[in-house]
Amino acid sequence: MKRNHELYDKLSETTSKENVLVNEEIKNHTYTKLGGKADYYVTPESYEEVQSIVKLANSEGVPFTLLGNGSNLIVKDGGIRGIVLNLQKLNEIKTDENVIVAQSGARIIDVSREALKERLTGLEFACGIPGSVGGALYMNAGAYGGEVKDVLTSAVVVTREGELITLAADELDLAYRKSNIPEKGYIVLEAEFSLKNGNYEEIKAIMDDLTYRRESKQPLEYPSCGSVFKRPPGYFAGKLIQDSNLQGKQIGGAQVSLKHAGFIVNIDHASATEYIDLIRFVQKTVKEKFGVSLEREVRIIGEDKV
């Protein structure tokens, strides 16, 4: 998409020029360090600005894409056309008794730390999840036996039409690693979590244990999208990949991690194409060897490079 000066001016009026970047490299904003350019990369600072940008995109017929903090996402090498919204500047976290309200751009890790500080239990599982609050709702993030649906009570979202609405948690159809947020086209702005009073030392001990288990088993020293595949019923994805002798398998700069077979890491300036090709190779090999179809947990968006 060529730069549309009129659209740029309208976006700048909606938020500010500092919040509108043109032809921005998305790989600078993803955990995998993958992804081409965004035509317009916009970081609004209020709910009203988000609503206005959605309405502007609709009126101008310009596609828009929501980008969380890019921890569970692969953006293709051709980038993303139209407007890419990043809500990183909406990152407030507030506590009132046993309720925490967090804006979507806050990291779910930081929400779990706030819960610890306030001696609230229920979010310990999230202490090692790198995603944003919005991303955590989008995929009902979970780890170590806990998930968002266990503690979420409501969410504030913007609809495809730019309307601001509040939804109860059960209206989001949260299930294993999914919600109705993508199909409804919701943009999450805020989440409310209901927790229980607990003991600081006990909560901290659980979080320290989970952090140790994560750091000792996961290849955090390399860029990655986290766990690539959902857990297939009756199996563990990492074990199937390991038993297929795929650890260390490499395509270009992308490698099946030697530390944890469920991770694919960017060890040498991989392209998104190489990363995706390796995911498909793993799926094909596991299917041939064990008859199990591995379903991606990571999202793939954007366009192929021409």
From TrEMBL:
Active-site residues, as the UniProt record annotates them: 177, 227 (proton donor), 297
Pathway the protein takes part in: Cell wall biogenesis; peptidoglycan biosynthesis
Gene Ontology biological process: cell division; cell wall organization; peptidoglycan biosynthetic process; regulation of cell shape
Cofactor: FAD
Primary location group: cytoplasm
Cellular component GO terms, alphabetical: cytosol
EC numbers, comma separated: 1.3.1.98
Pfam families assigned: FAD_binding_4, MurB_C
Domain annotation FAD-binding PCMH-type: ranges: 34-198
Catalytic activities: UDP-N-acetyl-alpha-D-muramate + NADP(+) = UDP-N-acetyl-3-O-(1-carboxyvinyl)-alpha-D-glucosamine + NADPH + H(+)
UniProt subcellular location: Cytoplasm
Sections of the chain in a coiled coil: none
Keywords: Cell cycle, Cell division, Cell shape, Cell wall biogenesis/degradation, Cytoplasm, FAD, Flavoprotein, NADP, Oxidoreductase, Peptidoglycan synthesis
MF annotations from Gene Ontology: FAD binding; UDP-N-acetylmuramate dehydrogenase activity
InterPro entries, per database record: FAD-bd_PCMH, FAD-bd_PCMH-like_sf, FAD-bd_PCMH_sub1, FAD-bd_PCMH_sub2, MurB, MurB_C, MurB_C_sf, Oxid_FAD_bind_N
Reported function: Cell wall formation.
Family affiliation: Belongs to the MurB family.
Protein name in UniProt: UDP-N-acetylenolpyruvoylglucosamine reductase
Species name: Oceanobacillus halophilus
